[in-house]
Amino acid sequence: MMAGSKALPLLFLLALVTLSSAPAMATSKFDFFYLTLMWPGAYCNSGLFSKCCRPTTGKPALDFFVQSLETYDSSNGEPVTGCSTDCRFSVNALRKLIDDLYAYWTDVSCPSNNGRQQWENVWCSYGTCSNFNETYYFQRALALRAQVDLLSLLKANGIVPSSDKLYKLEDIQDALIPTLGFSTVVECNKKWVLGESQLYKIRICVSSDAKTIISCPIQKSSSCGSKVKFLPFNPKQLPVGSAHNMANPIEMTAAIDMDM
Ligand SMILES: *[C@@H]1O[C@H](CO)[C@@H](O)[C@H](O)[C@H]1NC(C)=O
After folding, report:
1. Which terminal residue of the chain, N or C, has fewer Cβ atoms less than 10 Å from its own Cβ?
2. CA–CA dist 92, 40 (Å, integer)
3. Where, by residue number, does the polypeptide cross the bilayer (predicted)?
4. Is 136's C-beta closer than 6 angstroms to any atom of ligand 1?
């Protein structure tokens, strides 16, 4: 009796250790997210021609867009992708989120499109590794974007879009720390090889339940130079279609048919 009552907790502990170590033996296991928020002003200003078109679903928000909510493995610093061999994506599952998706998770690339392909790619690459259902995956990503509210955060620190002003990378990073801690990585692009750094993406580390912003478990350095442009984005001026795609009117059909 005495021996039994002592042995029981030990056995229980052993069982726990065995159970919890079993999944760790699987190859790559997702244990945190990178939420990638993209500034369309920089995206549109890369390459020789403006590469942006007005989505068929209407004018997007003047704000950072969600680009993806990526599943990562902190043990090797690599993304965990493609967890379902036959990936099923349904726009119907996103019905209740559609206005937010059109505003904040839209695809401004050319030719004008309804964003569906981008959502499907993100879902099939990362969403299927998240242990969430499709609705919840997109809902959490949108909620995190709203919670972080990067544009307001930067503005509160005097960092606003401007076609000629150069900001110190350090000032951008410092503006994020009081609210977001050490959870962010700032990424830049350039209009051309010798061009100036342009604030392009801010990636934010998020807990695996997609509820809490966390200090990044892996270190990624910024791809920006020490001086950074934060270019304006004007959703009203996005052209429909593009000079390159006028021959393909099928791509330019209007909003998504929810029953497809
Ligand atoms: C999706 O997951 C959320 C959160 O776990 C849950 O509340 C919701 O009922 C699920 N929806 C479907 C269609 O399974």
Report:
1. N
2. 27
3. none
4. yes
Q: Can you tell me whether residue 70 is helix, strand or coil?
A: strand
Q: Which residue has the tokens 């992708």?
A: 81
Write out the E strands in 120-223. Answer: 166-168, 184-189, 197-207
- Domain boundaries of the chain, sorted by first residue: 30-237
Nearest to 221 by CA among 196, 185, 188, 168: 185
Measured from the Cα of 135, ligand 1's closest atom is 1
Report the candidate in 143, 154, 152 with the shortest Cα–Cα distance to residue 206: 143
Q: How far apart are CA 71 and CA 76, in angstroms?
A: 12
Residue 79 pairs in a beta bridge with 72
pLDDT over 70 percentage in the chain: 82
Phi and psi at residue 168, to the nearest 5° = -75, 135
CATH 3.90.730.10 assigned to 30-237: yes
Atom of ligand 1 nearest to the CA of 132: 2
User: Given ligand 1 and candidates 123, 130, 131, 135, which is best to mutate, with the most ligand atoms within 8 Å of its CB?
Assistant: 135
Question: For residue 256, what pLDDT is reported?
Answer: 55
Per-residue pLDDT averaged across 126-139, rounded? Answer: 97
**Confidence bin at 33 (pLDDT 50/70/90):** very high
Structure tokens that stand for 159 in this block = 């960092």
The token pair that represents 123 in the structure block? 């879902």
